[in-house]
């Protein structure tokens, strides 16, 4: 059973800036969007395997706003646990997504579109938000030592040396170097790996640490899941033409930010009304179909195991 479709009307604020911070007074009951929220019921994903009959999220509070250049949607939903760390296989992250048809005036199957009926998906990830996506670069990415605070790094206990390899890490630190990482990078300084361990003057590997490049082939192949420098924000800009076709875009155009407080997530998605990317939904006319999906990490939700809606209508 699919819940009734909702209509969300975006407030037109003219030339006023729309904040991406979900805690900004703009989005509160004291700002211009007061009283403009719509409660949208969430449904279980029971269309394709693995089905998910009991998702944790039952409803989501939706607001929207636009100005002369941009459109933004704010989601808020209950979630008693903040799941924004995922460095072990037993961990699952909180996520939320909006979906729009790419072709103006069309309404593809809400099952992530179908062949020849492409959809544009904006997926916010709590882990990317925690890592400062769009601001912190790869240094902000979480790794094993973020979960295991007493993990030995460079001496005693369990230790794995970095091998020599063809992937050279620009700007890496060596014992006798000074200056910032950026300064070292500009000077063309690289590290060539651990080298001969027996000839070392120290057992501390100054090339080892968070997100070691030699052990990160995803970064070498420019995979956005491994390389945070490719992320514009905590929101990934994607396309799909049906289940199992989700693909990241070459151009990341969506801004966003999340905040967890009082057992609730609030997330803002924001993008230009029109872009030059043929794979993007273009907000021309005055309305657009919009579907919503939410994943609860503590409920082990991932991939197709999620709460969903069918197409709603976003008016702007």
TrEMBL record:
Gene3D superfamilies: 2.60.40.1190. It holds the Pfam family EB_dh. InterPro entries: Cyt-c552/DMSO_Rdtase_haem-bd (IPR019020). Keywords: Electron transport, Heme, Iron, Metal-binding, Oxidoreductase, Transport. This is Putative Nitrate reductase, gamma subunit. The keyword Magnesium does not apply. It is an enzyme of class 1 (oxidoreductase). Residues 24-307 form the Cytochrome c-552/DMSO reductase-like haem-binding domain. One of its GO terms (molecular function) is heme binding. Its EC number is 1.7.99.4.
